[in-house]
Amino acid sequence: MKDSFDKVEFDRLAGEFRFVITDMICRAGSGHLGGALSLVEVMISLYWRVMNLDPNNPKWDDRDRLVLSKGHAGPVNYVSLAYRGYFPKTMLKTLNENGTYLPSHMDRLRTPGVDMTAGSLGQGLSAACGMALAAKLDGKKHKVFCIIGDGESNEGQIWEAAMFGGHKKLDNLIAICDYNKLQIDGFTNDVLTLEPLADKWRAFNWEVMEMDGHDWDNIYETLNRAKAVTGKPVMILAHTIKSKGHCVTENRPESHNIKVDDQAAWDRNMQALDQKDYVLPY
Amino acid sequence: MSEQLHDLEMRAVYARTLIELANENPNIICMEADLSKASGTNPAFLTAHPDRFINAGVAEADMICIAGGMAVEGKIPFCASFTPFATRRVYDQVTISVAYANTNVKIVGTAPGITAGPNGGTHMCFQDMAIMRAMPNMIVLSPCDTYELRECIKWMAAHEGPVYVQLSRMKQPAVFDESYRFNPDKAVKVREGKDVTLVTTGYMTQFAVKAANELAAEGITVDLLHYPSVKPFDTATLIESAKKTGKVVTVENQSIIGGLGGAVCETLSENHPTPVKRLGIPDKFGEVATEDYLFGKHGFGVEHIKKACR
């Protein structure tokens, strides 16, 4: 699939992802919709075009790793894993059910293909540093990808990891910040401003890139450029729109976690999608 | 006469054991957060295995989660810092990236309890045993001398899963000898007696032994149980001893809430209700002071142990 990019096909896949993610969250009764929908194109690009993976062998030693440090975006990762064949798509409907393999936040012990547990914000980038450092000690060539949130970047530990990654020159580490400019309580510029964000990461000795997190070509080109960087880790600021494609909540703070109390609310949320002519895979 | 293990500082034995393990296992990693000289790993481990000595700087939260990531990749990181910074400061990081994720990370809390001496109240952590014991998947150890420490560190490296160990850094008198073998599921009966059960762990065991010896001269025999592992906790040995003596005293270099005394009371109240006297820090903070002053102020030195046992 890596070499055969078809924009129409990928647009359709992204639409289907948004449809399935929204349905999964509605089915569960609540969930983190906005931060999952903002990552759809980035996640598809990683799983279909950029990362070296073997869905039949989730623990393959030479695979690229992914830490979803903003662990609340679990559903977008679960859809990616299911559609890549890590587990049956029918499992997607079990999000947050009692005894599920698909909890709201990432759990490496429960979900096939999940490399690290995450959900308590700020910890995943440190873990990714550890994974990258371990790979260097072992002379391995794979990359470690880590997705953090912009709200998550309020955590002091993100900047501890930033210092460490820069100090250790972890050029096998590629971090992506889902910069959708929103966090639970409002716009990041109102709650606790991150700007100048690119300058901050540069000051911590990271190579900084920026991309439109919804533009296939821009994402692909940027990630490949990031893979070629040597001598320092890479931070990609992915400019995204929270809850993209869901007109009721798009770019609104309420998108962070939606409550779906009844069938009418479920229907309203499905109707809010740009594209709604999909069939659920379960 | 050749050097004996108990002639060494505890931290020197920690470093030496870690180096020996690292010589045999390329996955052993020594992690520090700018306290490597205090932990004894610098220069010893740093010189022996510079590539596997990782200093996270004064960033304990980062250190713990880096260790979690390394463990996922098959490494066996030993992370050391003063007990407050190895536990309470990073409680969420240890909970999520180590215990909940069940990563093979070893945490070494140095200078436990009153052994933090001149650093005073900010550095005197009396809760590390309680908070680590309350964490699922976490094993909690507190060796009393160099022989036991060496065995504990070896066991930690071989055991797959999270472990916390208290490490008092200085020289400690020998309670055991070269023949000692560690078993996390068994308390060690240091003295056999019938009048009172004295339960102890880690740094306080040397004082409990002294108290037991002096009580013997008074005609009081002590069933002295030393617990190198507070979790898992050997309930059978305690219950058996309590049935024999009908009276239990606990002593620890910790708050009397939630640590060894807590474990003893939980066990006995559910299995064989027995009067228990807990000695340790009675829900107070630490302060800059000598050991004798703190023993006297909080009532858990040798004389207090003897009084409680009479």
Total discrete domains of chain B: 2
End-to-end Cα distance of chain B? 41 Å
Mean pLDDT of chain A: 97
Percentage of residues in DSSP E strands of chain B: 15-25%
Q: What CATH architecture label of chain A applies?
A: 3-Layer(aba) Sandwich
Q: Per DSSP, what share of the residues of chain A sits in E-state strands of 2 or more residues?
A: 5-15%
Number of helices of chain B: 13
SSE order and pairing:
The complex is a heterodimer of chains A (282) and B (310).
Chain A: H1 7-28, E1 30-31, H2 34-37, H3 40-50, E2 65-68, H4 74-83, H5 124-137, E3 144-149, H6 156-167, E4 173-179, E5 182-183, E6 186-187, H7 188-191, H8 197-203, E7 207-212, H9 216-227, E8 234-239, E9 258-259, H10 263-271
Parallel strand pairs in A: 2-3, 3-4, 4-8, 7-8
Antiparallel strand pairs in A: 1-9, 5-6
Helix pairs in contact in A: 1-4, 1-10, 3-4, 3-9
Chain B: H1 10-24, E1 28-32, H2 36-39, H3 44-48, E2 53-55, H4 60-72, E3 76-82, H5 83-86, H6 91-100, E4 106-110, H7 128-133, E5 139-141, H8 146-158, E6 163-167, E7 188-191, E8 196-200, H9 205-217, E9 222-226, E10 229-231, H10 235-245, E11 248-255, H11 260-271, E12 276-281, H12 291-298, H13 302-309
Parallel strand pairs in B: 1-2, 1-3, 3-4, 4-6, 5-6, 8-9, 8-11, 11-12
Antiparallel strand pairs in B: 5-10, 7-9
How would you explain this protein's 3D organization?
A five-stranded parallel beta sheet of chain A has the order 2-3-4-8-7, with helices on both faces. In chain A, strands 1-9 form a two-stranded antiparallel ribbon. In chain A, α6 (156-167) links the parallel β3 (144-149) and β4 (173-179). In chain A, α1 packs across α4, α1 packs antiparallel against α10 and α3 packs across α9. Chain A has one domain (7-271): 3-Layer(aba) Sandwich (Rossmann fold). Chain A has helices spanning 7-28, 34-37, 40-50, 74-83, 124-137, 156-167, 188-191, 197-203, 216-227, 263-271, and strands at residues 30-31, 65-68, 144-149, 173-179, 182-183, 186-187, 207-212, 234-239, 258-259. By secondary structure, chain A is α/β, with parallel strands linked by helices. In chain A, 37% of the residues lie in helices and 13% in strands. The two termini of chain A are 24 Å apart. Chain B is α/β, with parallel strands linked by helices. Chain B has 13 helices and twelve strands. Chain B has helices at residues 10-24, 36-39, 44-48, 60-72, 83-86, 91-100, 128-133, 146-158, 205-217, 235-245, 260-271, 291-298, 302-309, and strands spanning 28-32, 53-55, 76-82, 106-110, 139-141, 163-167, 188-191, 196-200, 222-226, 229-231, 248-255, 276-281. In chain B, the strands form two sheets. A seven-stranded mixed beta sheet of chain B has the order 2-1-3-4-6-5-10, sandwiched between helices. In chain B, strands 7-9-8-11-12 form a five-stranded mixed beta sheet, with helices on both faces. In chain B, β8, α9 (205-217) and β9 (222-226) form a beta-alpha-beta unit. In chain B, α4 (60-72) packs parallel to α6 and α10 packs across α11 (260-271). The mean pLDDT of chain B is 98.
